[in-house]
Amino acid sequence: MTSLLVIIVLVLLAIALWQLTKIFDLTQVGSTSDNTEIATDKDNNIQGYLMFGFLAFIYIFTIYGLIKWGPLVLHTPASAHGGQVDNLMNITWILIFIVQAITQVLVHYFAFKYRGKEGQKALFFADNNKLEAVWSIIPAVVLAGLILYGLYAWTNIMFVDEDEDTVVIELYAQQFNWKARYSGEDNVLGKANVRYIEGVNTVGIDLADSYSQDDIVVTELHIPKGKKILFKMRSQDVLHSAYMPHFRAQMNCVPGMVTQFAFEPIYTTAEYRELPFMVEKVANINALRAKKSEALVAKGEPALDPYTFDYLLLCNKICGASHYNMQMKIIVDTPEDYQAWLKDKATVVNEVKASLAAPAATGDAKSIDSSSAKKDDVAVMAAK
Ligand SMILES: [Cu+2]
């Protein structure tokens, strides 16, 4: 309602302004000032110099942006393939900068040089095959090179050797959180379907499948350093996108299908925190937080906690109201720490059994209890 009123007020203001300019025009009738709508040499000169002004604005703003926001880039990639992505990105940036630097100068300079002059008539110029060939072939070759290099990098990154020793983990997306399913001892994820979601079986594992028996579901992702992780992505509801910026990894999570992405982490969380650029970044963030805390404490509010770096899995598709907060912490451990962390995690099968054994203990127990199908599943499991 408020926005409708604001829009009405703005429209009325615009109409009032338009009417005022008409009144102003009428008051000028008969005055000696030049009110023809044909540009004079003075107008053309002003426009010509404004072109240079705009050119200066573009470059000053670009340099300002690079200095002010340049340090905010992600910096060192934390995955083995990350360097390739960064390389491709940097080459693209450099090309864009060179091309834009040349073309913008030419566009603005020619607009100035050939500005209108009293009595001067524009030359009619139909075409020039040589010129057109030059400005078609050069971009075509450069773009083809860039695309071929991109395709080469993409196939390199996306290729997963079937025989390679990978850790298989499922990333399960739903509005608005992530869950990770570990494939357990057999390194094979059991079958899953949204129809099996019930009670503590939050990602819809088929409990009757033999591969499901050792599957583990967690809400904090731990992965070992130096080992290729094969992520299998699923979504429960809408399109999400699993985005792990520090690892230069992103893949859509599509309802009804399984997508995948594999990478090898090369720094543990502890090692990445110690990298000089990260130490500096965290110090800067904490300096800002300390400043903000002072203001908060002065107002009698609690101070902010100091920031420590963690890798994150974010959702990179606008999937609903709480999309902005759809994230999961990723911890890269040493292989030993990873094994130790994984060792005592309960399997989903055992969690389901426990929840069925103590129906009063959990809030979800009632719905599980009422499902005879689920009891059959557990019976199948028990028989194995
Ligand atoms: Cu999402």
UniProtKB/TrEMBL annotation:
Ordered alphabetically, the record's keywords are:
Copper, Electron transport, Membrane, Metal-binding, Respiratory chain, Translocase, Transmembrane, Transmembrane helix, Transport
- Which subcellular locations apply to this protein? Cell membrane; Membrane
Needed cofactors: Cu cation
Keyword DNA damage: yes or no? no
Note the Pfam families from the entry.
COX2, COX2_TM
* The Cytochrome oxidase subunit II transmembrane region profile domain, residue ranges: 66-161
Upper taxonomic lineage: Bacteria, Pseudomonadati, Bacteroidota, Flavobacteriia, Flavobacteriales
Role this protein plays: Subunits I and II form the functional core of the enzyme complex. Electrons originating in cytochrome c are transferred via heme a and Cu(A) to the binuclear center formed by heme a3 and Cu(B).
Q: Which organism is it from?
A: Flavobacterium tiangeerense
Question: What protein family does this chain belong to?
Answer: Belongs to the cytochrome c oxidase subunit 2 family.
Q: Which PANTHER family match?
A: CYTOCHROME C OXIDASE SUBUNIT 2, CYTOCHROME C OXIDASE, SUBUNIT II
What EC number(s) does this enzyme carry? 7.1.1.9
Task: Kindly give the membrane topology term recorded for this protein.
Answer: Multi-pass membrane protein
Could you tell me which InterPro entries the record lists for this protein?
A: CcO_II, CcO_II-like_C, Cupredoxin, Cyt_c_oxidase_su2_TM_dom, Cyt_c_oxidase_su2_TM_sf
Q: Is Transport among the key words of this record? A: yes
Tell me what reaction this enzyme catalyses.
4 Fe(II)-[cytochrome c] + O2 + 8 H(+)(in) = 4 Fe(III)-[cytochrome c] + 2 H2O + 4 H(+)(out)
Note describing how the cofactor binds: Binds a copper A center.
* Segments passing through the bilayer: 47-67, 88-112, 132-152
Ranges for domain Cytochrome oxidase subunit II copper A binding: 164-344
> Enzyme group, top EC level?
translocase
Q: What is this protein called?
A: Cytochrome c oxidase subunit 2
Its primary localisation, in coarse terms, equals: membrane
